[in-house]
Please model this.
Amino acid sequence: MQSDLLQINALTVTLEDQTPLLNGIDLTVKKGEVHVLMGPNGAGKSTLGNVLMGHPDYRVRAGSIRFDGQDVTLLSTEKRAKLGMFFSFQNPEEVSGITLENFLRTAKSSITGIEENVFIFNLKLKKIMESLHMDPLYAYRHLNVGFSGGEKKKSEIVQLLALDPRLAILDETDSGLDVDAVRIVSQGIRQFHTPENSLLIITHNTKILESIPVDRVHILVKGSIVASGDVSLIKTIEEEGFAPFVGMGDEIDES
Ligand code: ADP
Ligand code: MG
Model:
């Protein structure tokens, strides 16, 4: 039997001022599985990703997050990263003063606790970038500074492949991408995925999921998971939108 890699139990989260954001979330991802999280704008999808990584804006009021059997609910972001958790932001920030290469080599060294050899790391990075049809010279530009939307998203996939986490939470890594870039990101996800690691993919763009084996789909509405099912749930959403899950008369922000 596959073991549980991520176990979210009855997770209830608010902002500091008690504004409720997530309400009793239960979700288990086993080793090797690919889960997809969908839902209307403002449902709390990015919040969940941030909370899983320990973002300081959010307060866990009840419930727990376990990673590979260990309770990580109160761990720092850094410690979660060391355990093998990775979150790619919906809107990657531009960070001047550090190159993509330097950022990644430092992060990788910090995660593994072993100083990465500069030469070998650069070779690996070059290979990864070439496989994603990204100019390897981008490795020496400041992190995301002046990158186009598509390049930022590809840079997230480069980070995914270079850091090689055990659980990757990808937040709309596909939004704003042209068809070719969607294909490349999708290929990067396939390249990353093995029976030993897991993915939680937050997306609106089901094109990204083509040729990625999806084990389970969850629909988040107003901070609660209102439906979970197999990959056929994606088809239902494509055809009917989120309305059937929100309930009659509820407003959905489709903007
Ligand atoms: P989604 O990713 O599903 O579109 P989000 O998780 O980004 O939704 O946001 C869910 C709700 O929580 C939104 O109403 C958003 O404005 C609010 N929210 C999330 N994070 C914060 C924050 N740090 N400060 C204030 N409001 C927040
Ligand atoms: Mg979001």
